[in-house]
Amino acid sequence: MKILVTGGLGFIGSHAVVELLDDDYEVVVIDNLYNSSIDVIDNIKKITGKEFSFYQNDVCDLDALEKIFSEHKIDAVMHFAGYKAVGESVEKPILYYENNLLSTLHLCKKMIEHCCFKLIFSSSATVYGNPKVLPITEDCKVGSTTNPYGTTKWMNEKILKDITVANSNFTVIVLRYFNPIGAHKSGLIGEKPNGIPNNLMPYIVRVATGELEMLNIFGNDYDTPDGTGVRDYIHVVDLAKGHLKALEKAISSRGIYYYNLGTGIGYSVLDLVDNFEKVNHVKVPYRIIGRREGDIASCYADPSRAYKELDWKAELGLEDMMKDSYNFILKQKKG
Ligand code: NAD
Ligand code: UDP
After folding, report:
1. Which atom of ligand 1 is nearest to the CA of 35?
2. Alpha-carbon distance 255 to 170, whole Å?
3. Ligand 2 centre from 157 Cα, in Å?
């Protein structure tokens, strides 16, 4: 079975490609390298010992998609390609709406033209906005998004729903990720944001290596056990494995399905710092500063639907996430 992976050289996509190759799927990747590097190809090959096809193209480019679908009989698509920086999306909404919506529209158009009807879509817990009830189930209200990035995910979900209504063969598995962190055990692939990181985990590792002086914790006056923000951190390898389960579901079903991919456990910012220091025997100096605009107090999943219907649950714990994130960055520094 041949799977097209858009954004397959990015953080989550590269881990999904590894899992697909390990499970003997044939893989075709399209990535324009906007937020990834060509070295990831060799690193995936080193990890898996397997080959895959790569197209350095934009998913919004209909001609490039036509070429891929003509050259390969694609059975299903995992669509990771997209922009994901919340702050940047506020500054550049047109860029975000254009890339995140057009890529999906053009991809679906070409899929249908080439009779490929199975899609796994990367959505986000951000579609739930500021949750009224915790843990968050898939039936919680969506759409009260607080930034253009989140709105692109919600709009994608609506577009995909309409496409499944109009095309009875078309099947979509919408995966709403919570907070993916960690890296592959090998230390060969992981998350390497350009510039100063916005997200907590990449920031912590850069403080630990001494590249950044100290972590700024955005507020300790939230209504949480220690006052700092609580999130559901999930190991990227667990997340990637969830995509293979979603693929099996897509192959055997019709229609559109929604799943939370999280652990169901909420950890605070201070929990992460403490755990990181203990596991890696390194100090992470921090100071408390004001809240970050748009942040919410707590967000964690009820992942039970994915367990019941996909037979998937997260296996790796916080210690693995801390260890693997640090291992990846140390290996990168060594070159
Ligand atoms: P990433 O930026 O590491 O990977 C995305 C990849 O897509 C990159 O390699 C980039 O070069 C590529 N890309 C972007 N636009 C493209 C285009 N038009 N054509 C071709 N390639 C393109 O991001 P990630 O963390 O791996 O996230 C993957 C998906 O999961 C994204 O859709 C993201 O919004 C979603 N998501 C991520 C998180 C997270 O915290 N990482 C959480 C929820 C949802
Ligand atoms: N956070 C922080 N300092 C940072 C980055 C993040 O205190 O430099 C906090 C943030 O306020 C939130 C948690 O860490 O409570 C997770 O933030 P992240 O940006 O990683 O994910 P998201 O807010 O998208 O869930």
Report:
1. 11
2. 6
3. 24
Say yes or no: CB of residue 269 within 6 Å of ligand 2.
yes
281: left (phi over 0), alpha (psi -120 to 50) or beta: left
* Catalytic residue status for 149: yes
Q: pLDDT tens-digit profile of 54-97?
A: 999 999 999 999 999 999 999 999 999 999 988 899 999 999 99
How many residues comprise the chain? 335
Q: Is 104 touching ligand 1 by the criterion CB < 6 Å?
A: no
Residue nearest to atom 18 of ligand 2 (CA): 199
- Residue 252's CB: how many other CB atoms inside 10 A? 9
Contact 173, 164 (CB under 8 A): no
- 3-class SS of residue 298: strand
Q: Sign of the CA dihedral 203, 124, 300, 145?
A: positive
Q: For residue 259, give both structure tokens.
A: 């799943």
Q: Is pTM, for the whole model, over 0.90?
A: yes
Ligand 2 in reach of 203 Cβ (< 6 A): yes
Please identify which residue in the block is written with the tokens 């990168």: 332
